[in-house]
Design a protein that fits this description.
Blueprint: H1 3-10, E1 16-21, E2 26-31, E3 34-36, H2 38-46, H3 52-82, H4 92-124, E4 136-142, E5 145-151
Keywords: Membrane, Transmembrane, Transmembrane helix
Length: about 150
């Protein structure tokens, strides 16, 4: 280990904030006064060796969300543009499939937001687990009778 590596490890971590902007409450991430889009947040964590456990789920969710959203835009946009032609009968089935792709992208976006929040909490806590391990023991009654349920 060199002296430069020791200094780099001892520097305090600049916190990342999660902001909601716009009419649809789009998530924007802010670090050092610079606002970042989700892809920029992913690239920031991808290059950070302390965040490797969070990169894979973030990448998968971001990729699926982006692919489905782009596919939805193309599949909805093509029949709409085609409908402007005078002698055209657009294939509206493509638009319906595109709407389905847009709906399918929503869970991936939500999962990305959830994983990004966990990663940001871990990053802001100085690479320490932000949540402590607290199992809960609950008494539950259901159709089978009374029982104990442990929640992790």
């Amino acid at each position: 280990m060199t002296i430069g590596e020791v200094r780099a490890q001892s520097v305090s971590v600049e916190p990342i904030e999660i902001l909601e902007k716009g009419l649809f409450k789009k998530k924007v991430y802010k670090k050092c006064g610079i606002e970042m889009e989700p892809i920029q947040l992913f690239k920031l964590f991808r290059d950070d060796p302390g965040m490797q456990d969070y990169v894979k789920p973030l990448g998968k969710n971001l990729l699926m969300s982006t692919l489905l959203t782009a596919t939805a835009g193309v599949l909805v946009g093509y029949p709409v543009v085609d409908s402007f032609s005078k002698d055209s009968d657009p294939n509206w089935t493509l638009a319906y499939i595109g709407a389905g792709c847009a709906l399918l992208s929503i869970p991936f976006t939500k999962w990305f937001d959830k994983n990004a929040k966990e990663a940001i909490d871990y990053h802001n806590a100085g690479y320490q687990s932000a949540t402590s391990y607290r199992p809960q023991l609950n008494v539950q009654f259901n159709g089978y009778g009374l029982g104990l349920a442990m929640r992790f």
